[in-house]
Each structure stands twice: as structure tokens, then as C-alpha cells.
Amino acid sequence: MPVISIFFYFLLFFSSKATAHGGGHHGFTTSLFHRDSLLSPLHNPSLSRYDSLVESFRRSFSRSATLLNHLTSVSTACIRSPIIPDSGEFLMSIFIGTPRVNFIAIADTGSDLTWTQCLPCRECFNQSQPIFNPRRSSSYRKVSCSSDTCRSLESSHCGLDLKSCSYGYSYGDRSFTYGDLASDKITIGSFKLPKTVIGCGHQNGGTFGGVTSGIIGLGGGSLSLVSQMSTIAGVKPQFSYCLPTFFSNENITGKISFGRKAVVSGRQVVSTPLVPRSPDTFYFLTLEAISVGNKRFKAAKDMSAMTNQGNIIIDSGTTLTLLPRSLYDGVVSTLARVIKAKRVDDPSGILELCYSAGQLEDLNIPIITAHFSGRADVKLLPVNTFAPVADNVICLTLAPATNVAIFGNLAQINFEVGYDLGNKRLSFKPTRCA
Known about the structure:
This protein is of the alpha+beta class. It has two domains: 27-255, Cathepsin D, subunit A, domain 1 (Beta Barrel); 264-430, Acid Proteases (Cathepsin D, subunit A, domain 1). 17% of the residues lie in helices and 33% in strands. The chain is built from six helices and 28 strands. It has helices at residues 3-20, 49-72, 148-151, 225-233, 325-338, 382-385; strands at 27-34, 90-96, 101-108, 115-117, 141-142, 156-158, 165-170, 176-188, 191-205, 214-217, 238-242, 254-259, 270-273, 284-285, 287-292, 295-298, 312-314, 321-324, 343-344, 354-356, 368-372, 376-380, 386-390, 393-396, 398-401, 406-407, 415-420, 425-430. The strands form five sheets. A six-stranded mixed β-barrel has the order 2-3-10-4-9-8. The longest helix is centred in the first third of the chain and has 24 residues, at 49-72. One of its GO terms (cellular component) is extracellular region. Keywords: Aspartyl protease, Glycoprotein, Hydrolase, Protease, Secreted, Signal.
């Protein structure tokens, strides 16, 4: 059986199994795959796990630059999307249309619109699955350009027929997608979401390609999949995910839950406010300080291009955690004094604090605590702050940010992270995510 076929078998099996226990209109759960895991269709067997991790570090800086560009750009008829299209780190399986067609895409908290490639193609990139044909879906409907839905999307405009709504995204790496704004049925496992607004891309190009055929938008905007679940199906506007360690050789998956299944509760839960800011796609938190053991470093009021409130973005699509230089330098200097192992250079030249060690346990790494507003102290274990980047080389996975501070996905490993859009709260709970 070809590798791609094996992947789809596992993906569909895990998705249907997960949702079978969490279906219904109150909430449901399905699987997440890291793009570099052995079960992922994007897994490149010619790359070592170290090479794959280094590539994810590089994508972190590219993504950060694009986030900054989106935060500071002026809206135009064709806006820059907040993400680099192939920079997302986790994949999710859903179905579109009637009859349903499988759609493997990047699940991304930095994007709102869910879109896939559609026939007829004026320009399409290669994908392993058949391209979605809207003419074969009995539930597919174009969105009118005079509708509130069309006007709610900054990148929309009237199509050539002057009736239907068209959209256009250009990305930071010159990739693009143009097409029709439409509604169709989305199915996730046993859960059905009728009349969901999607993008049907007829002209797409750039760095896309391979297996994924688009993006699943999990941002905070009105057209994100999470927000639409609330308005269409009465599912509470909340979701949570649990990200497992993904730089091992194990075939493990994470999970993502919606609605009531996404409630994060228990004695160890800490919560912090989601700060309303523009654009509403991103999830802004307030980072007050970082501690290394008992040494505490306060976040400066000018720690980023943003204000003191909502001064850091939590993002599933960025691997590294990016901190302003003043805060980062304090953390690094303290770690350098505490960790007694031999300092070495990062072979890739990306990370600044590295040691000669075979495994994390050899370094006696102290707990690093991220102090968010609302007394939400998130204790980061060594697996959240250091990673093996080569044989006998382990590096700190925090890096200096230029303008945008980001709490990345390595820092979120083995936490259940809950986004409650209704109550504007984000919660962390230490959990074994496998």
C-alpha cells in the first residue's frame, strides 16, 4: 500500500474513532497530526528528525515576519493573509459537500477563512487528493456579493457576474488564492455543519503543494470554523487542543475538541484573559513576566510593537517562542549560569543557547514559568523549552523577537489549551497529550 494511502487510512480511522465518542451538537473531538510526524503526508523520509525540527524553526521566523506585516498593513482589496500558507504545523481532516469529499488541510489559529482548491482551475497546485468540484455538491451555494457575509471579509469583492462574492488572499511569500466565497456542508467525523462559509479557490499558487489542499481557519474572526459552529449549529464558540511531543520517532497524534468537549477543567487549570485587539483573527494574551527558577524578569511595557495589554500572540503554527530581546537576554543569562554543561554552537546557526548533551535529563534544566495576567502561571518543563537539534546537541527553543512576541507550540506541548471565545478566556492544563 503506498505511503499516502496508509496515511489517509490512519487519518480517517483516528478521526472517525475520536468523533464517535464525542459527536452530537454539544461537542466533539478529532485528531491532529504534526506535519513532520511519521503519519503525516508531509513527512519527508529523506530528512532526519533534526532536519525537520530545524525547518520548523526557520518557518517560525518567516511566520513572525508575516504576522508583523499583517498587524501593521493597511487593508486593500486583496489583503495579505496573516499566515504563510505552507507554514502551518498541524493537519486536520474534514469533509466538504454532498456527497462529502475528504479535505486534508492545515489547522491554523492564525487564519479565519477555511478554503480549498476548486474546479474549474484557472491555476491550481498539485495535491494528492482529487480537487473539489462544487458542481457535484448538492449543498454548495455561492454567497451573494450584496450580503453581510461578503462584506464581513476584507478581501471580498463582487465577481465578474456582479452577483457572487469573490475573495483574494496574497501571502507573505507571494503565494495566493483567489476564488468564490460560498457555503457548503462540512462534516468532521459524525458531526455535520450545514451551510458553512468557505473559500472555493479557482486560482491558487506559490509554495503550496503536496497533499494538503487548503487551510482550516481556527482564528477568532466571524468566518472562522469555530465562530461559525456557534452561529450555525449552536455549538459553544470554544475549542481546545492537546499537542504531543513531535520531535520523537513515535507515531503519536494530538487531539482537537470543539464545543462542550473543549471545556478545560480540573485542579491544575490556570486561565488568562483573551485580549480583544485588531485584527480579531489573532489570540492576544498579556505576558507579565518570565521566571527561571526563582529569578523573575518583568515584561517591559514596550516589549513589542503592541501595547502592554495583549502583548503576545499564542499561535499553534509557530514552533519557537519569540520574546523581546530584553526579556530573552535575562532568561538566557540566568540559564547560562545555572546549567553547568558544556556550551556548544547550534549546527544550523539559528538558536543561541546550546549544550553538549545526549538527552534533556543530562542538563538539570530549571522550570521556566510564563506569568500571564490573571495569575495564570504556566510552568514550562524542559520538553517545552529545550529540544535536541543534532546528535548530542540540545538548544533552548526560545528566541529573540524583533517586534511580535509569540507563544509557540513547543511551549504548549503536553498542555490542554482551551480557547473560550464566548467568555474571552484561555486556559492551560498540564496533560499527557498522546
